[in-house]
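User: For my dataset I need records formatted as: sequence, then structure tokens, nothing else. Please produce one.
Assistant:
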Amino acid sequence: MQKTIVGAIEGTAGISKVIHMRTQHIGPDELLVAAKVQLTPGLDSAGVAAVINEAEHRVREAVRITLMIYLEPDVFDPKHPELAEG
């Protein structure tokens, strides 16, 4: 299921990478998804919101259980990959 979620997020135009993701079942048919994502450079705030909303929609289409989704825009720094855990 995690691979499906990552694929749905990374398949969204405007998202270049899932930096870090956690999932947690919070009920028998309910899943919490929290992820840091790297966006395509140059998006304004409305563009960021649109990309995040589309990614959430794509995840809900790919995983047919009740989802709570929190996506945080971030920038991956290969010199400090431990910061992606934050």
